[in-house]
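Record 1 of the preview.
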Amino acid sequence: MPTITRTAPAAAPSPRWRFDVQLISAHALAQYMTFRGFTVRSLAERCGEKQWSTVAQLRSGRTNTCRPDLARKIEKALDAPSGSLFVPRVTTVPGAPVHLPQSTTTRRRPRP
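->
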């Protein structure tokens, strides 16, 4: 008689989360920069960024997320109230599996 062995199902890997901040408005950022007399490069230098491309992409609207520490430095350099240019956002890391809860009910398609 063959032996049957049972193994516990493998635990699903947890998704990897990343905390970013999202720019509320590229136009508002550009207005603050103009009002305070900053160029993209001068703002990046004031924030301690070696590469100014992130600041340029935020201003142009090409991207709307950045690291929380950079967002704080930008708001401080522009003398903007905290939270006036950026809002918190939690995202999943690209390529990491995302596990959604399974529905307990099944929907049936209506018959034609």
